[in-house]
Every structure is written in C-alpha cells, then in structure tokens.
Amino acid sequence: MDIFKIALAGNPNSGKTTLFNALTGSNHYVGNWAGVTVEKREGRMQHAEHIMDIVDLPGIYSLSPYTLEEKISRDYIQNERPDVVLNIIDATALERNLYLTLQLIELGRPVVVALNMMDEAEKKNIQLDLEGLSAALGVPVVPIVALRKRGLSELLETVVNTHHAKETYKPRRFNYGEEVEAFVREVELKLPKALKAQHDPRWIGLKLYEHDIEVQKLVAPLKFDSGHDSPDLMADLRYKVIGGIIGGTSSVHDIAFDPLTDRIDRVLLNPWLGLPIFAFIMWLMFYLTFNIGGVFADMIDVFFSVYLTSWVTAGFEFLQVAPWLVSMVVDGVIGGVGGVLTFVPNIAIVFVMISLLEDTGYMARAAYLMDHWMTKVGLNGKTFIPMVLGFGCNVPAIMGTRTIENENDRLIAILINPFMSCGARFPVYVLFASVFFPGNETAVTFSLYILGILMAMAFAMIFRKTLFKGEQSPFIMELPPYRFPKPSDLGIHVWEKVRGYLIKAGTVIFGASVILWFVLNFNFSGQVPITESFGASVGHFIAPFFGPLGFGTWQNALSLVSGIIAKEIVVANTAILYGLSDTAGLTEFGPVLSQAFTQVSAYAFMVFVLLYTPCVGVIGVIKRETNSWKWTGFSVLYQLVVAWVMAFIVYQVGMLIFG
C-alpha cells in the first residue's frame, strides 16, 4: 500500500477546507470570509491502492511570512516536505491566486493546481484554456467544483501520477528579467552544498532578492547585495509574469454584472445605514434567543428540576443509597450540569445567527464598516473579525488574530478580545436578565455586548498610545460574494459549537460541580452544614472584595472565583450555592436571588462577569499565541481590575440614581 503526504495550500476563501472535507470525510467549518483556517488540520483517505495523509494549511496570499499563518504554511512545506502540494485556486480570481502558485512552484516541491469554483467562473462568462494554463505553469491543472465534489476523481489521479513522477517533475522556471536571474545565479554558485541539499537554491536566490528576513537568517553569515532596497520589486515582477500567463490563457466575454450584490452593498455598506443595520442584526439575535430559545429552555429546565430530580431521588431511596451520595448527585451533578444544559437552546440560537452572518458574507462587510471606527483607536477593520468571533468563543477568536500582519496590532487584538462576550457568559445574562429585568431581557443583554465592544475599543486606544506605539497597518480585505448558506454546513458548524458546550458540561462542569459539592459539604471535621464548610470559609474570606460592588455574599464570591475555570460554572455554582437543584427550577431563582441582589447589583454582577479574568482555556491560548508569561499575566490582572472598577461605577452610580 502506497502512503504519501499531500499539503493543501491556497488563498483564504478559495474552497480549500471544502475540498479537505470532501476528500477526507471531515466536517470542519467552512466560512464565507477570509481567515477561517488559522492552523493546519490533518486527515487521511484511501484512493485505489494509495493512502493519502492530507494536511489543510491556513489560507494565505503568499509565502512571505508577514503573518503567522503564512509562516505556518511555509515552514510546513519547506521543512516537512510533503510529497505533493495541492494548490487550490479560485477560478474567478485567477490573478490574485496565481501569485501564491508561482511561489509554491519556486519552492521546488511537486505542485498540482486544482482550479476550483469552475461553476461560478462559467456564470461570470470567464473562459479558461486549461491546457494552455498548465503549459504556462509547467504543472498539472485540474478543474473542480469542490462544493459539489465534481472533478475529484480526476484530481486524485493527477496527484497520484505527479507523486510517482516526481523524479522527473520539472516545473517551468519563470524568467523575471536579467537582473534577477544574474543575482540568482550568483547565489546558486556561492551557496554551500549542505544548504543546496536542503532547499531549492533558485528559491533561496529569489527570496533573497525580495529581502526575505527568514531566508537571510538561513544563509548567514553569507551576504548578498540585490542592488535594490524595495521588497515589493519582486512582487511587481511576479505580477508581470502572471499578467502574461492570464493574457494567453483566459478571457471574459460579456461580463456578468450582479446588480443584486451591488444593490445590497449600497445599503449594508452605506456609512449612515450600515452601522444601524449591524446594531439591529445584533439586537435581533438576542431577541430571538430569549423569545424562541426561552421556550425550549423552560422545557429542559422542567425535565432536570422536576422529572430527573424526582426520578433519581426515588431510585436512590429505593436502593437505600447513602444520603451524602444522593445529595452529591442531586444537588451537585444535576443542579450544576442541569443548570448549564438548560441554556443550550439559547446558546444554539446565538451560534446559528453568528454562522449565518459568516456564511452569507456579511461578516467581512461588518469588518469593512467598522474600519472607520477601528482606525480612530489605532487599529483597522481586520481586527474586528476576531472580535466578532469572540461572541462565540474567545479561544478560536484569539487564534484568528494570526491573520493580522502587524505584531503590535496582533498583541492589542489578543489583549482586548476577552472583552467580547463569549457564549459561555451568555447563560449568566439569561439567568439574571430573566429574573431581574423581565420584559427587558433583550435590551439588557444587548447593552452588555455593546459595553464589551466599547471597552475593547477604549483599551485598544489606550494600548496604542502607551504599550504599543507605532504606525497602524493599512486595511486590505477582499469582500466575498454573497452566498446562501448550505444547510448541511450551517448545521455542522452549529452542532460542533453546541457539541463543545455539551462536552464541557459533561466534563469540566461535571467535575467542578462534584468538587464544589464536596467543598460546600465538608471541612476538617467531616460532613457539615454548608455555612461551616471549606467553601463558606473561602467565600467569606473573598467576599469583602466584592462588597463595594453590591454582591459581597460568600456565595457570589465563590461562584465568581470558580468561573475562572469556565464561565458556565457561574450558573452551575449559583444553583448549587443557593440550594436550587431540587426546587421547581428557574422559577425559584427569582425569590432566592432577590435576597442577594437588587436590580442595580444584578446588572453590576453581569458587568463583572463580562469583563473579569477570562477562563483557563483563554488564558492558555493567550500564553500560546503571545509566547509570553508577561502578557498572559498582564491580561489576567488588568481585566480583573477593569471589571472591578466598572462594576463599582455601575453599582455606586446606579444606587445614587435609583436608590
């Protein structure tokens, strides 16, 4: 059995992940915007007598390591040396896509070009000479439609043939002019044999000509004078070659203009209408979450708090199970995990709405709309995409900052992202808004999301003027075409998000609920009343810290501290700490919580949950993405301080106004 490795490389939004899913049977998310894939994914498939290990690399525009995902892709191809590089090209944007193709060919690995979205090219009356394009590039070119799995058999056969013929594989050497070629020949002559054995010498020469810092380090202490000081000169020369290739192999007849897209963009991108429309869409998301999700949430709540609790209690009584075990399961597990699972419908609707915004192409337009405002705080619209992704989960959102070229901009984006209210905080808002602001849940929750955005932008401005001074990078982003979301893709994306929420409920929150039950029922003397437990002692010690914020009870203090593990635990622990697991469910939260909160302190509590130290998963990804304990520790501490100050202001000012 023949086993070999294939690397999928292509521009963002070229259909690369769609092809990966089609080949491997995977269900990775496919979005209609740039930057969906920010780390490599791996899968395996069998074709005839061949086993192919396929690696889906991050979407990139070039192999110049300006962004982290470009570095990941280039390092993989250069160091892991896949047997074949499968370059996915958007047939409707040939000029932009071929820039990466030329660089992949220059790198020296066997390349096969998959010309994707041929159906859309036909709709736009784009005619391509595939044989001519293959001859011009010197590599095989195969037309496909990855979304409909058209042309995949021919593509796989071509990949296999290229792999078997790699000893005789000879791509075209593009002529970039005598000055460049003379420089490359000089480099090839002076490179040591060991370096030539590891890397294509022509590729090294071309990268040195464009002042590639990584390659300059690679050849040190050797130095070469390219005779120019513009790193963009090589890009201009490549585009001249690309222009010649396109001129001889493609043509467009009677350009198909899409008036609908233009009319929609005139409204959605209007400087006066665009932002109000975006705000209305966000408000609608929360409205649907409470008014539709709430119905199903009530059903789940009744199941856990009435039926499951009574069934388990009756079963344990019949089996004569020890009272402490009954209490642990009913009060700890069902009370904690059930309290979190109650909000699955609300979470699912949030994920559906966010996925719709991404898949239709609106998300990229939201970034364009926000560029004007982001520029005022020292960033650009590209930073807004990871911010919006944070509404789902801050972990992939922070990883999404890899698409930001400027390192200072990226660090700012990482540090402000946890202010974006993730789905894990949402159950807290649902609970407290339903109890203390009935009829106004949508407005209250909407205000918290807006506050998170404003805080993120405010601290972006502060960081730009203090910690990360320097020029901001320009905003360049391709607006994807509007597309109707494919129901299966939408379902897969939402299910993966909800599945992650359920897994967390069954693992992290389950474990935390059991631990909390022990902490609340024992001390050094054994099992004791909750007021004498370890948890009560810890809570009483911490509670004064929250006193000026209006929620200085030991139960609230302990709940917030445990929320650093996972924000959903705040709801789970609130149920356990106030002994609500064996009551009639959420209907009993009101009377109990009203004894510990007022409307003002409840809103201050939600503000604190919005802004305080992120969960351990986010802390871990901040450490990984910054590679710095300094910035990780700074993120943890400054958010805690900001949360305390803002909750203090909300509570104290609120008490002055409302009493």
TrEMBL record:
Mg(2+) 1 binds at residue 22. The keyword Protease does not apply. GTP 4 binds at residues 116-119. Keywords: Cell inner membrane, Cell membrane, GTP-binding, Ion transport, Iron, Iron transport, Magnesium, Membrane, Metal-binding, Nucleotide-binding, Transmembrane, Transmembrane helix, Transport. One of its GO terms (molecular function) is ferrous iron transmembrane transporter activity. It is found in: Cell inner membrane; Cell membrane. Mg(2+) 2 binds at residues 21, 24-25. The chain crosses the membrane at residues 272-290, 302-326, 333-357, 411-437, 443-463, 501-522, 534-551, 558-580, 600-622, 634-658. GTP 2 binds at residues 35-39. GTP 3 binds at residues 56-59. SUPFAM superfamilies: P-loop containing nucleoside triphosphate hydrolases (SSF52540). Residues 3-165 form the FeoB-type G domain. Gene3D superfamilies: 1.10.287.1770, P-loop containing nucleotide triphosphate hydrolases. GO terms for cellular component: plasma membrane. GTP 1 binds at residues 10-17. It is a multi-pass membrane protein. Probable transporter of a GTP-driven Fe(2+) uptake system. Belongs to the TRAFAC class TrmE-Era-EngA-EngB-Septin-like GTPase superfamily. FeoB GTPase (TC 9.A.8) family. NCBIfam families: feoB. This is Ferrous iron transport protein B. It comes from Acidaminobacter hydrogenoformans DSM 2784.
